[in-house]
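Bench log. Compound arrived from synthesis this morning; before running ITC I wanted a structural hypothesis for how adenosine-5'-triphosphate sits in the protein. Inputs:
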Amino acid sequence: MSSNAVGVKIKNVSKTFPAYGNKSKEIYAVKNVSIDIEPGQLVTLLGPSGCGKTTILRMIAGFLIPTSGEIYIGDKEVSKVPPNKRNVGMMFQSYALFPHMNVYDNVAYGLKLKHMDKNEIKDRVENILSLMQIGDYKNNMPNELSGGQQQRVALARAVVTEPSVLLFDEPLSNLDAKLREYMRGELRKIQQRVGITSLYVTHDQSEAMAISDKVIIMRHGMIEQVGTAMEIYSKPRNVFVADFIGKANFVKVDEVKDISNGYANIVLFGHEMNITAAENCKDAESFTCMIRPENIVITPDGRFTALVTAKAYFGQYVQYMLNINGQDIELMDFSQTNTNISEGDKIRVDVMESSLRLIASDSKKEC
Ligand SMILES: Nc1ncnc2c1ncn2[C@@H]1O[C@H](COP(=O)(O)OP(=O)(O)OP(=O)(O)O)[C@@H](O)[C@H]1O
Ligand SMILES: [Mg+2]
């Protein structure tokens, strides 16, 4: 981490806009959101379209003023500080390089605006181009570069002015799947090497999981859950989060016998088991059990009988659609050792109890 990295804090921030067609009504784009990003960390905002991700970035950058709440960059409260005084860099979905400038000039642009000494500009630009491994292209025009190379130039341009904070708004969504996966790794490496505190917006859950120190799941302008990718995947707070991150079966339980200290004793398909329980189970009236498709195993001594209703091959895994006691359940078999199973077969399966999670299913308690 670079020694001058600063943290970013958002405290109880809301932003309202006049509702379309009814200017006297306000809608909340962001509602009472607090976020804490440690110096040098990369935190991701993940959530469906319209949940307020870009609005949060725009408030940190200074293009929007919060309706209420405070924003700190380091120790300084910046809610009313103009964008050009915040030392915040942004990288957008459309990376919009200046088409009439070559790579070098595109990257040098922000430094020239700051009236930096010519030799220092040269040093900085050449350094960053070599860090991004695009030094050989410095005289190319943007239209002479591939999508991935343009992306690197855009990142170089955002980083070269040494902003305290870097904001990314779906920076990779213009790239095809393979390049996107490669670039997210590169971007993370550079971010860590330079040590810039970053807030990253994406729709793509695997991207969020791959690059983040911390993931924030949003819905309707509010935060649903904050945690590491692993915490959120294995211990979702509610059905929305469980469903948004990864695939999940939601299964009716026969009985909930006891819930205490984050665990539940339940009866599922006639068998008693101990599984983890979400906080929202405490005062709930109805429950669902989350079973990730990869946590069901096919085994001759499995406790449950399942009817195979469909089978599909996806290369890395085989997907089985099962019916267990009248409930449809998806199983992903990564081991692929069960090659002779076909549609219509009855097989024995079991679950890894510690990976199952009891979640309140009545929607009143979720919002
Ligand atoms: N300038 C504006 N005036 C009125 N409403 C706005 C304005 N900007 C955003 N909104 C509304 O605020 C909500 C949040 O918008 P925002 O752009 O932050 O969503 P997002 O999470 O970035 O979505 P996406 O993933 O589609 O980019 C939306 O309902 C949007 O219509
Ligand atoms: Mg957006």
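What the model suggests: The two ends are 38 Å apart (CA to CA). The mean pLDDT is 92.
ITC booked for Thursday regardless.
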